[in-house]
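debug: dumping io for the single-chain case to check the tokenizer round-trip. Nothing else runs in this session.
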Amino acid sequence: MKVFNRGVDINVSNEDALKVNGTKIIDKDGKIYGDIHAAAGSIGTTELADDAVTADKLADNAVVTANIVAKNVTGAKIADKGVDTAQIADGAIEALQISANAVETAKIKDANVTGEKIANKAVDTAQIADSAIEALQINTGAVETAKIKDKNVTLGKLAAGITPSHIVKFFVLGSTITGTTLEGLAVDDLVVTITANGVSVATCGTADTLPFNPEDTDYLIVFRAAA
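debug: decoded output
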């Protein structure tokens, strides 16, 4: 050991350089052990061993933004439900961030589902409220015969001044007719026959002659095109 005006030089080879009551304080390589009472600010980065600063060494709230390397706060570092509205940047939630079926009715602002948001043919009967289809919703020429329920075109549904295409010329019972002769019948008259089995329609091809021989119990209504 040599004494200098600024300290002590200890030369050792295999033994600890300094022990106090058998406890190693400095080893032969100059590494210091035990509790160290160092002056404030005297220990810098070079004096700290790798991985030496554990969680217990950090004071509460000691790690601030400036101490965190950019892009190093991964998902595992964020507590469950730790991200609130204030932490999400405007416009940051895109389609990929939203889970399937995550958007429920309560999440949609009223009157914000516009036409362009609805897929083609997505609106079925179940999605339409009762009595929601009014005149403005029906396209011109959209209501065809098949769309009208039988016996539901009443007189009130006909426009004023409508001209019928055919008028009734005869209403007779088959028992009053001899054979196929029916005087007054004209070519192209429509003969509607009502039987116990149903209704049939035929067109007259010869004047004064029915296109068939009716049964006595048949009822015949003859329609003629209006002049």
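debug: round-trip ok. DSSP finds no helices and eight strands in the chain.
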